[in-house]
Specification:
This protein has about 90 residues and is an alpha+beta fold. It has 3 helices and 5 strands; from the N terminus they run βααββββα. The longest helix has 13 residues.
Length: about 90
Amino acid sequence: MYELVITENYQRRAKKFFDKHQEILKQYEKILKILCLNPKHPALRLHKLSGRLIGLYSVSINISYRLIIHFIIKDKQIIPIDIGSHDEVY
């Protein structure tokens, strides 16, 4: 199992996001559970990013929203970085 490490910066971003998008909170919680149990689960559509986000990964919450994470395999940690629509986080 992987440890989810929530930073203060991410907490602020997520709060601002969910103030506007409460309707996807249950999907988000489900995605986090799957992510901690099996980051390679196909439902997550986990993939490496490139360009200015090189070294980070993206996980799909649904068709419209993404979660950007720093995925540290060695220490079994997942650190959320950003959340938002495709255009907002890329």
